[in-house]
Amino acid sequence: MTLTKTDFKEYLLCSKCLWLKKKRPEEYTAGEFSLFLQKLIKDGYEVEEYVQKLFPGGVFVSGNKETLMSRTKELLQDTKPIFQATFETSEGLFAKIDILNFNIETGKWDLYEVKASSEIKTDLKHNHIKDVGFQTIVAERAGVNVGQSYLIYINKEYRRSGEVDIDELFIVEDVTERLQEEKEEVKNEIVNALALLKEENISLSECSCLYKSHGQRCDCFFKFNPQVPEYSVHHIVQGNKLRLLLDQDILEIADIPEDFDLTDIQRDKVHLQKTGRAMINTDAISETLSRLVFPIYFLDYETYGTPIPLLDGYKTNQQIVFQVSVHKLQKDGTLEHFEYLAGELQGATKGLLEMLKTCVGPVGSILVWYESFEKGRNMELAELHPEYREFLEDINKRIFDLMKIFKDDYQHPDFYGSASIKKVLPVLLPELSYKSLDIQNGTMALSEWENMIRGGMSDFEIQKTKENLLKYCALDTMAMVEIFKAIS
Ligand code: SF4
């Protein structure tokens, strides 16, 4: 069984998780964390294509595993840069190196790893030094005379203007010395990872995240801890307090003893689960809503960002606002709907702002869910389109975050401690569901839009995608309208 760089990264995060994925793939549940890793890989490929332009005359290695390795051997006899040089060692390590570049002065191959990131990261989730360490060790063990090791990442200050300027876009950093400090550690970790993959069985009952907060879990948590409910004591306390409860086999929030040391906020959350009844501060809600001014606009954006900026004026991963839905509610209950969906990249935000200006008048509150998102995008749009700055700043002044009510004055045991619209809506208005839609969340929306603007879809597919995107975004604002009515 081979150990790739991705496997090694997963091993560093959690050995149990890697073992399950490699040895019992049928029991491994890919979820949010896997999607996160897939996105990293996809972003990486996109960036690599641009980075390769920094090495003119380079040869891309492709084909099946055998071809990749034999072609790599051939190319190592020459001095042209090699993209995706591939190696497998006798102990089972497998690596595809982003770039090997022959250094005429040293007579060695310098190794480059490309990251779709705007800095060198060394946290548990992305340890770039260990990534390049793994690749360097595999190349050396496969017989390559490796010189310096480099990381190439994105300059976060770069703003696109016309064609991408690859010399400005990328930062190339020599990390050979940093790697030397960690090389022995990486070697030991590789030994341990290979040993783990030889194990035929490991304990599948419990894993160390049982004692950590719920935010640190991977997709396998419930495989190892099936006894833990979806909303558990992990959502209330952490550290020693969590351990104290677990040592008494207390997993349900409702089972936390009355005299357990908790803050007021924690105690409210426990009370909610014990009684099973919503806690609604109707006076405070009425007071908050009375400050809103009709007509009330319900606003929602969909956005799309890429590591390599696609449009002029954009930085790495800056979000392009490609879609908006607005519901306008008058005091007499009249409701109008406005929407915009960019059919192509160029002019996407200009068209959106033109439409927004025609439907959002000078008076009225603007309701969003999670204000920092829409406010942040508005400020970025104001930078890109200064002629709309005043309008966008005025929108931001009029924004009210409907989510605040569900943080402060309306709690329900079935929200599971969250104020997200995806948790609130099914409880308050189960009939208004995203489940019947082809697009059910923001990640799906941006990926569908990406497929549409990148070309290759038939007219029928484009039409269908547009309909699905419009339905999804319209439901986001319609959901806010109905929630607003439900609490008014
Ligand atoms: S939840 Fe368990 S399997 Fe997943 S990272 Fe944590 S310890 Fe590992």
Describe the structure.
- It is a single chain.
- This protein has 488 residues and is of the alpha/beta class.
- The mean pLDDT is 93.
- It folds into 2 domains: 5-198, Lambda Exonuclease, Chain A, CATH 3.90.320; 278-488, Nucleotidyltransferase, domain 5, CATH 3.30.420.
- It is globular and about 80 Å long.
- The protein contains 18 helices and 13 strands.
- β9 and β10 (335-341) form a beta hairpin.
- It binds iron/sulfur cluster.
- Residues 297-420 form the DUF2779 domain.
Structural features:
488 residues, alpha/beta, Lambda Exonuclease, Chain A, Nucleotidyltransferase, domain 5, six-stranded mixed sheet, five-stranded mixed sheet, 18 helices, 13 strands, binds iron/sulfur cluster, coiled coil, DUF2779, DUF2779 domain-containing protein
